[in-house]
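Quick one:
INPUT:
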């Protein structure tokens, strides 16, 4: 059995913080530990395709619009974050593939060697996008874009692809060995590649595929890609690449001993369904115009960043879609659902500030951050992970969320502070968080009953 480290996961995050606080003197100042997030990998990690206001690192074409940096920024609304990226366009896994050190993950000067080089700082989340260049993704896009001959029949494409896919598990195995030997890395988030080959589909495009010989052809440099090419790219390039990445995550987690917990961000691939290179404004099929594309065309790339390297990469919208997925994973490291012990329903809220309980669904509206209040040992702000608003109440027993303001109506005493289930007492009203089977949430005088006890994740 493996022993995967997952620092600050759901319930353990609060428990770890609470344990630390209990060891401190009463009313000792407390500060939540920042989440240390590092990104390494290729152009899909660097933000290629979304230059924004300019490259942070022109040589690597690294952008502040990169999905992982956006996700870290979203988390920073509710929790302190340290973010660093070494991602670089053209990157591969192993220096044996012949790339410069900045464009490899492994090796004495590779990107991984730059992650906490002293080994003294925990890395809570190492986010990685890799594998595309290892199988020659750029060459495949170029070959399919510049010729009307079907890619699946082009042995200059299929031959190297088959060879590269056969070598990829070995390279990924080397990456696993390198990372799992690092005690400073707690979690690895390996991101899937998006599938950019589909348009809106019905009613006219029954296959849903982008490409010529169908109702939704490519454009702005992708006009020679056929539906046959798209079908092949989806099933023979994107699918096996993502399958290899998923297998790598499974292998990493099955290793014995203490090592990082690996996670595969599989939702990224399907999130681009219907938003491929043939959609959005400019498409010859004006019916697709209301459906935005999530990838850049060669013209998009040339217009925004002065070259075509961003072609088939996530654009601004695509980066945000990926960021939302990654944010949910980052959020899970410092948040927890709160389940009423009596009703088994989860504390939930919405953008208007309403608070209620619903069946537990794992969504961000049901993820709550228990953020220590400075100067106290067991008082917390209870912050909704989606809205970044604080749980609040009044003397009439009403519960809602408001923008966090530091007032006592938003400070909740958690008892017991070192185990779960918990009771949450509003420090302004002295009433306890309560609910009923109808999903209503309110505060009442503290009575010790199960309706006032809330289970954190373990």
């Amino acid at each position: 059995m493996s022993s995967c480290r997952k620092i600050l996961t759901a319930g353990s995050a609060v428990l770890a913080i609470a344990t630390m606080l209990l060891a401190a003197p009463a009313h000792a100042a407390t500060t939540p530990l920042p989440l240390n997030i590092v990104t390494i990998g290729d152009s899909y990690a660097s933000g290629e395709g979304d230059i924004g206001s300019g490259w942070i690192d022109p040589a690597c074409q690294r952008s502040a619009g990169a999905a992982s940096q956006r996700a870290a920024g979203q988390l920073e609304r509710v929790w302190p974050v340290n973010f660093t990226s070494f991602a670089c366009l053209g990157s591969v896994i192993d220096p044996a593939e012949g790339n410069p050190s900045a464009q490899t993950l492994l090796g004495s000067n590779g990107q991984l060697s730059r992650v906490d080089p002293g080994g003294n700082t925990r890395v809570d989340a190492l986010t990685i996008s890799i594998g595309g260049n290892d199988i020659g993704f750029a060459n495949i896009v170029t070959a399919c874009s510049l010729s009307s001959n079907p890619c699946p029949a082009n042995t200059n494409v299929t031959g190297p692809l088959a060879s590269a896919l056969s070598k990829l598990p070995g390279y990924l195995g080397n990456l696993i060995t390198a990372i799992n030997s690092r005690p400073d890395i707690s979690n690895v988030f390996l991101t899937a590649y998006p599938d950019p080959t589909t348009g809106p589909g019905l009613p006219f495009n029954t296959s849903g595929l982008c490409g010529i010989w169908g109702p939704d052809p490519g454009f702005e440099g992708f006009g020679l890609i056929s539906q046959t090419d798209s079908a092949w790219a989806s099933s023979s390039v994107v699918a096996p690449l993502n399958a290899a990445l998923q297998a790598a995550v499974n292998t990493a987690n099955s290793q014995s001993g203490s090592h990082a917990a690996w996670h595969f961000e599989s939702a990224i691939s399907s999130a681009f369904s219907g938003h491929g290179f043939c959609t959005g404004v400019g498409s010859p099929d004006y019916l697709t115009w209301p459906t935005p594309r999530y990838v850049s065309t060669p013209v998009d790339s040339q217009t925004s960043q002065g070259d075509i390297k961003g072609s088939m990469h996530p654009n601004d919208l695509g980066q945000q879609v990926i960021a939302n997925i990654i944010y949910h994973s980052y959020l899970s490291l410092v948040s927890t659902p709160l389940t009423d012990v009596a009703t088994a329903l989860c504390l939930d809220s919405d953008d208007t500030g309403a608070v209620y309980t619903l069946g537990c669904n794992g969504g961000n509206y049901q993820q709550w951050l228990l953020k220590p209040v400075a100067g106290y040992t067991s008082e917390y702000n209870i912050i909704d992970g989606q809205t970044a608003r604080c749980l609040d109440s009044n003397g009439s027993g009403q519960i809602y969320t408001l923008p966090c303001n530091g007032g006592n109506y938003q400070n909740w005493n958690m008892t017991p502070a070192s185990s779960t289930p918990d009771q949450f007492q509003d420090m302004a009203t002295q009433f306890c968080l309560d609910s009923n089977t109808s999903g209503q949430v309110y505060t009442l005088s503290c009575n010790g009953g199960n309706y006032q006890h809330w289970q954190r994740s373990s």
